[in-house]
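testing teh design pipeline on a random one, pls ignore if ur not involved
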């Protein structure tokens, strides 16, 4: 019994050591040969948000959803060296439906929310390398100079040590608070407070939060895409628009009817402004906790004519993946060749599951 357990642990250790060495130290040629014979993981879907210029500074608290344009190009070049094939959402849907074996790992590049820098910083790079991509649009953000992306407003407040008071909810951060504890702590407190309450009282919070930003500082909130830029990217043949709801609420707090209304409203706005009826959807925030109850999702997506729905839950992409809970991997400026290899091989996704 003990010998069997020791042997099992030894086998697991050898396997993990091999996978780590494969991802960390193997040559590109050897890694590519390994992938061609490893059919379990089909590749991965990348989730990005903002793409910023190397001349800009990362955000202090929201940098996990930011990536430098130079890093984005580095990732694209590296994935091509690893013989990954960039596919459109239409191609991805077809591959998942056909359940065919692939001789290459597939990758899809997606952007969430609809930030203007997807056009001003990322689009030229994507055209240069002929990479297809999608933008999941929160329709109320589009064409807004000061969109209600409250996570960046919260960062501005905490970074500048601005006292805030939400009397209706008996929540405040004072000048004394900033002297007592660190900014990261108060950003997290404010973020959790807003996340838990904002969707049920959006008008109140929008008025309160925007009043904390002086008129001359409105540019501290990222500018969003306009329909003109969106249509130009679609016209390139590389971009597919996707649905990201009307105003970016957490699904965990919505009824089934509210979920449908959020999707259909955004879907309709996309159709009115682009002529495209999008059949692809990404959940706002996208984690397992953010999505909440999953019992009604298949029916909701069927009613909204959604073919593929994407999370930000890391996981293997294969023919057994749920088409209403597809995994995506968030990449940022910390991504390395090891990061890409471990995602393509599926070893990272499996380690998260374990």
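output:
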């Amino acid at each position: 019994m003990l010998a069997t357990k020791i042997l099992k642990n030894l086998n697991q250790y050898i396997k993990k050591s091999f996978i780590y060495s494969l991802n960390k130290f193997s040559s590109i040629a050897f890694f590519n040969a390994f992938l061609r014979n490893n059919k379990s993981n089909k590749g991965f879907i990348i989730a990005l948000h903002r793409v910023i210029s190397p001349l800009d500074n990362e955000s202090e608290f929201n940098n996990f959803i930011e990536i430098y344009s130079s890093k984005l190009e580095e990732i694209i070049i590296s994935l091509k060296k690893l013989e990954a094939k960039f596919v459109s959402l239409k191609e991805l849907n077809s591959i998942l439906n056909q359940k065919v074996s692939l001789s290459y790992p597939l990758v899809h590049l997606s952007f969430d929310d609809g930030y203007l820098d997807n056009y001003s910083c990322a689009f030229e790079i994507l055209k240069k390398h002929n990479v297809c991509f999608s933008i999941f649009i929160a329709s109320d953000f589009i064409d807004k100079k000061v969109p209600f992306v409250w996570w960046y407003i919260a960062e501005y407040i905490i970074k500048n040590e601005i006292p805030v008071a939400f009397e209706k909810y008996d929540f405040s951060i004072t000048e004394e608070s900033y002297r007592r504890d660190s900014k990261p702590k108060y950003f997290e407190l404010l973020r959790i407070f807003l996340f838990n309450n904002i969707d049920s009282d959006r008008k109140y919070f929008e008025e309160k939060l925007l009043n904390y930003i002086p008129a001359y500082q409105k540019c501290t909130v990222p500018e969003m895409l306009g329909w003109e830029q969106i249509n130009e990217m679609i016209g390139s043949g590389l971009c597919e628009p996707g649905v990201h709801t009307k105003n970016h609420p957490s699904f965990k707090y919505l009824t089934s009817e509210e979920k449908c209304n959020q999707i259909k409203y955004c879907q309709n706005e996309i159709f009115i402004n682009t002529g495209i009826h999008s059949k692809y959807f990404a959940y706002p925030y996208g984690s397992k906790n953010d999505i909440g109850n999953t019992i009604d999702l298949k029916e909701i997506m069927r009613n909204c004519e959604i073919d593929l729905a994407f999370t930000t839950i890391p996981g293997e992409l294969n023919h057994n993946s749920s088409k209403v809970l597809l995994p995506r991997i968030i990449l940022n400026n910390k991504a390395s060749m090891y990061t890409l290899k471990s995602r393509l091989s599926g070893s990272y996704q499996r380690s998260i599951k374990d």
